[in-house]
Write a structure and sequence with these properties.
117 residues; mainly alpha; 7 helices
Length: 117
């Protein structure tokens, strides 16, 4: 697995882990909830180029696009209520993000984890 793919999988893992694990990670970094999405987004911005270069497969690109779209749907000033630790813990939107992140991980690595609470 190349460096880009490893970094992308790790960013997806941070979206897939439980709210408790996400809170711990964010606290260690001293950043807000949006950081886990920004880490993924920074890498996703290169995905089309990596697809063209053969660094990721089309099916991988497709599942990454689905995850990115879901993150975009919960973003923006009108959705600020979703970018809190409380939202990580209890909002269905974050449960869906975890599910999609697990799908991306499974597609890229063959690993399949159960849903994270």
């Amino acid at each position: 697995m190349n460096h880009y793919r490893r970094a992308l999988v790790e960013a997806a893992r941070r979206l897939a882990i439980s709210a408790d694990q996400q809170e711990c990670y964010l606290t260690q970094l001293g950043v807000g909830v949006d950081e886990i999405a920004l880490e993924f987004d920074d890498l996703f911005r290169l995905a089309a180029t990596k697809l063209d270069a053969g660094a990721i497969a089309a099916r991988e690109y497709d599942v990454l696009c689905v995850l990115e779209r879901a993150l975009q749907e919960i973003s923006g000033p009108k959705r600020a209520d979703l970018w809190t630790v409380e939202a990580l813990r209890g909002r269905s939107e974050w449960a869906k993000i975890r599910e999609l992140a697990n799908d991306a991980i499974a597609t890229m690595t063959g690993e399949r984890r159960g849903p994270s609470p």
